[in-house]
Structure formats: C-alpha cells, structure tokens
Amino acid sequence: DRTAGRWRRDWDGKVSEIKKKIQSILPGGAWNPLYDTSHLPPEHSDVVIVGGGVLGLSVAYWLKKLEKRRGAIRVLVVERDHTYSQASTVLSIGGIHQQFSVPENIQLSLFSASFLRNINEYLAVVDAPPLDLQFNPLGYLLLASEKGAATMESNVRVQRQEGAKVCLMSPEQLRNKFPWINTEGVALASYGMENEGWFDPWCLLQGLRRKVQSMGVLFCQGEVTRFVSSSNHMKTTSGTEVTLKRIYEVHVKMDHSLEYQPVECAIVINAAGAWSGQVAELAGIGKGPPGTLQGTRLPVEPRKRYVYLWHCPQGPGLEAPLVTDISGAYFRREGLGNNYLGGLSPEEEPDPGNLEVDYGFFQDKVWPPLAQRVPAFETLKVRSAWAGYNDYNTFDQNGVVGPHPLVVNMYFAAGFSGHGLQQAPGVGRAVAEMVLEGHFQTIDLSPFLFSRFYLGEKIQEQVII
Amino acid sequence: MAAPRTSLRLVAAIWSGSTRGIHGLGGAAAPEGSQKKGKTLLQFLSDHFYDVEFLREYLLQRQMLKVHQENRSFAYIAEKHGPYVAGACFILKQGGAVKFQNKEWIRPDERGRFPLEFSEFPGVPVEAVDASGCAINYDGLDNVLLLKELRSLSLRRCPNVDDWCLSHLHPLANSLQELSLAGCPHVSERGLACLHHLQNLRRLDISDLPAVSNPGLTRILVEEMLPNCEVVGADWAQGLNSEPEEQPQDRASPVHV
C-alpha cells in the first residue's frame, strides 16, 4: 500500500516532466537536447537592458512602442534580483513634482505626470484589470528662508514658463491655508497645485512589467559580469588617436552558480540604478589616464537614504501636501490614520554596504527641524523605517542619458539622484528616440549627455536654502 | 458541440457593433461570473492566434479613442462665441444638462439634439452643469473650466472621473458652491483631499463611492478640511457595524467618573 502511494507520487512528477519536455520540443519552445535551458537568456538579442527597475522597463516599453514595425526589435531585460529587495524604485516614497530649476527636468516631470494620468491607456493589456496607482494629487510645498527667496522666485518663474501649475505663497497665506505650520523663518513658499503628489511605485513597476511582457520583451534573472567588445582605432581630424569600442557580447551569469550565457547584442542600455557605475566599469569606461575622455568614469554611486514612518494623533489634516522644510527635512501624510512618512538627506553619508536603519539619525537630525516646523510633531511615535539606495551622481546630481562617446553602443539611463522614478517615462522615451532615430525628438536632453563629465559642464539644480 | 455555437454568438456580437459585445472582446475588466466561458475561449484564441490577439488590441484602442473623441477641445467655439457657449455646447454634446443664469435647464432629447438659442447671448454665464453619467474625463474638464462663474457641478456616476480630475477643479474655487460626486467608481479619498482648494463650497455629495476605503472616517476628515461645507452622503457610523449597543455605554462612562 505504501509502495503504491510512493509510485503514484513519482508518476505525477514524471508526468509533469514529460509534459515540459514535449512542450519544449513543440515549435515555440527552446529545446536543447542535452539539458534544460529555460532559465537562460536567449543567445541573440538586439538590445540588452541591464537593470529591470522602472528606468530599464520604461526604456524597454518605449523601444517596443516606437519601433517602426511590430516585432522589429528584440529586447532582453536582465535583472539581478527578481524580488527587487534593494531596488531604488520600490523603496522610494513615490513623489512626483515639477519644482526644479533646470527646464529639462520640469519638462520630463510634466510628461511623466501626463503618462501616469493616462496610464491605463499607455499600459493597457487585453484581459488585464486596469492599474490603480493610488495617486495622491496633493502637491509639494517647498519653504524658503530670506536667503533662498530670490532663488525660489526665479525657479517658479521658469516652472510656470514651462507650464507647471505652481504658485507662490507668503507666510500669511501659508498660515491661513495650513494652520498647523509654524511660519517662523519662512519668507516664501512655492506650492504645486496640480500634477504633483505621490503614488505607488510598485504598481507602476508591475504595470510596466505586464505591458512590456505582452509586447514581447524577454526577462532574464541574472547578473551581467562581462562585456566583450571590439575596438576600432581611428584618428580625429587633428591627428589624435582615438579607440572606439563596440560591445558585441554580454555575459549573463545565473544566480548561485558559475553558469553564464553569452548574449550577442547590438546595443546595451545601462539602467542599473545605484550600481550603474560598476556596470560602466565592466565596459571599460574610466580605464585610462585621468583627465582624458578614456579616463572619465561614470560618477554614479549608491548612497543610503532613510525613510521613517511615524504616527502623530494631532498631526496635519487630510489636505497636507509633501512639505519640504528649509533644513531639507520633508514629510507627507500616509493614508487616513494620521501616519506620516519623512526623512532628511544626511550631511555625513552612511555606509552604503547594507540597508540597516539608523534610528538615532531620526532623533538627532530629523525630528528637531520637523517639530520646529510643525508643532504637532512634538508628540509623535516612530512606527517603522526603511532604507533605500539613491543612485547619486557626484558630479551634478542630475541624470545621465544617451550614448557614451567612446563605447559607442552603450546608452545610459541612470544617475538621477532621487528623481529617477518621477522622470522615468520621459527618460525612457528619450533613450528610445536616441536608439531608434539617433537624436532626441520630443524633449531635448543634450545637456544630460555623458560628455559633460569630461567637458566639466555641470547642470546643477539651484538648491533653495 | 457547444464551442462552435459560442463562437458564432461572439462573431454576431462583434458585427452587430453593440457596446456590450465590444466591451467583452476588448477585454477591459470583463465580469467574472456570467461571461466566464466566453472569457476563457477568447483568451485561448488570443493565446494561439495572432489575428485574434491583434483584433482584440485594436478594439481596445478603439474604445479609448472613442472616449478621447468625446472629450475633444471646444476652444475653437470659445474663440468665436465666447467661453460660456463653448462650455455649454460641450456638456450638451456629451448628453448632460446646462443651466444659464436666470434661464431654465437645457437638456438634449433622446436623439441628442438640443436648442441653439443660447449661442445668441454669449455674455450670459452658465450657473449650473449636470454631467451625470457622461464620459467626461480630465481633458474634457478643460472645457468645463472655461465656465468661470459656475456655481453647481454634478458629476454623478461619471465612469471616467478620477482623482486627477478633482485636482484639476481648483480654477473654479471662486465660484463653485455645490459639487456632487455620488456614484463615481474611480474617486477615492485622495481625490477628495484636494477639494480643499474649493473654499466656497457649501454642499458636497460623496455618497456611494466604492473606491473610498473608509467612508465614515473620510467624511469626518473632509468635514474638518472644509468647515463651511455641508458634506452629504457617507454616514459617519458606516463601518461601525459591530457592537452597536456599546455606544450608549461609552457615552455614559465619563459621567460615572
């Protein structure tokens, strides 16, 4: 009787294995007579996107959307961690705002807002339920002291020129509208009336993933360990020798094993977020004498940022926007139950080796400015906290978009230093236009090209103090 | 034998052009119970035939295009006849009703025709708009925002009104006094929170909003946010289903102490 039961269990396992083998032999399945290769990426792909976060998926989406003929481009997205446990996308607070000083950033954010508004048209998949981003359109409120008021005024002028709906408020208007704010030290405030707020980044990621899979993009879970490239020695018009490289193979290593698959590719997109610098080093970017173009590395490194969740029974009401204080501390409401999320960019950078939270930082650095700005926050109780990586661009804290001048088929879409999520749809479209057309068509992101690191041209946001 | 008959029924549904048929084929959130068999057959066909997959995607795109077409911009009428006439035309075309100042309600009849006398008086502002059940969305609201002196706006049971639309209403803050959002399936408490711009609001109807997670608490918070406004609809005791007898005791206990 016991042997009969065991035989039946074995038989069930065998039947499923036989079914799997038959399915792989039928047309459409990847059949390798020696062993099962279903977990490996394909051997050829036109575009390989390193990094499956919101930027990588956005580039994949726009590549498939803007291709001239259906199925013209084969895209492979390689993501190291399919649980996204350390990805900046899902650990972000999900804010979107247009209160920048660089016009291209404002345009990117405006386009992203309209993308999120019409997300169920862009990412519509037959038979799938519509996406609910849980978007909260309450806007951002930036506070400025006397010193920063002039900067804020000129920023708002640029923002309104680009079409953002931002208004300036005096301290008295602030007190009338938001009575829970202590306006001591505040000279001016800018408030976003529309297209600003926060949403659920997981939902955007899942929506993009679902749509992009339905468009035929392949996903692979693995780590990129090597780029094999061919070199071309050329001379410029002035006679200097230049070595142009072209990546023709990407080695993708599987998890927990030495097995790797060489993927032959035409274009590589570096959308690896906080680890883009490491991926760029693999391609040989930055290996050269310092001060030359070969020696200019991609200055993106991971920086750890904390987000704290607390409960305050008498805190700001339902209409509270995301408030950014003069000191840099920010907070926003979370849900209906008087819970709040917030944090602060630290002056001394914590060690980015792990994602452990420092609660002492909240007590010493985050709570005092918040309690001074919102007196109700004197009685708060921290519920939980988490840490996430910020793909920090040490050069000018703005993103890198477009091809590398020497490694001609590597395109960057990284280094957005905390704005990656809110600019992802616009950046994805820009990179897809660059790949397919050769130049930017809708939003001109030429100031964001890699060459600015060599030429020393910083595009820095005018920070409001 | 059942399969050929169901496929014939589906084919008849496509070509009769009925919205229910196109809804089912386009695949936008088909209901579970009644059309379950049809849904699996369509999915099976979509998975195995490229033509069926392409046809379904095309029908879905057509649905979305229809909504876009209904919400096109009426700015060209505004240039010629003024903003009030443009906004009124837009609402009447969608199937809603319009009330000019000191005049009666104008409604389109069942064929969609409406009288055009109001175009002769371009200076008369529109006082009230009833867009119940219309396919108005964020882009269409741009046409309603032309009506600078609108007092009452009714968006009952509008399927495309969501939180983004509510954040778009702030230009009407000076004049809007009455707003009704009853029965809108995509309005949640996040959209209701941005009604704080409308400080002149005196009456707000938020009954029957399925996307609001906690109607009673939301109503209390909205009342705190808009102190001069009468909030109608969500009962504050909604959601307090269990233990109704304990409430009189709670009120009594402070007296004891």
TrEMBL record, chain A:
It comes from the Eukaryota. One of its GO terms (molecular function) is oxidoreductase activity. Residues 46-434 form the FAD dependent oxidoreductase domain. InterPro entries: FAD-dep_OxRdtase (IPR006076), FAD/NAD-bd_sf (IPR036188). Pfam families: DAO (PF01266). One of its GO terms (cellular component) is mitochondrion. Required for the assembly of the mitochondrial membrane respiratory chain NADH dehydrogenase (Complex I). Involved in mid-late stages of complex I assembly. PANTHER family: FAD-DEPENDENT OXIDOREDUCTASE DOMAIN-CONTAINING PROTEIN 1 (PTHR13847:SF287), SARCOSINE DEHYDROGENASE-RELATED (PTHR13847). This is FAD-dependent oxidoreductase domain-containing protein 1. It comes from Propithecus coquereli (Coquerel's sifaka).
TrEMBL record, chain B:
One of its GO terms (biological process) is mitochondrial respiratory chain complex I assembly. The lineage of its organism: Eukaryota, Metazoa, Chordata, Craniata, Vertebrata. Transmembrane segments: none annotated. Interacts with incompletely assembled mitochondrial NADH:ubiquinone oxidoreductase complex (complex I). Belongs to the ATP synthase subunit s family. Required for the assembly of the mitochondrial NADH:ubiquinone oxidoreductase complex (complex I). Involved in the assembly of the distal region of complex I. It comes from the Eukaryota. InterPro entries: Leu-rich_rpt_Cys-con_subtyp, LRR_dom_sf. One of its GO terms (cellular component) is mitochondrion. This is Distal membrane-arm assembly complex protein 2.
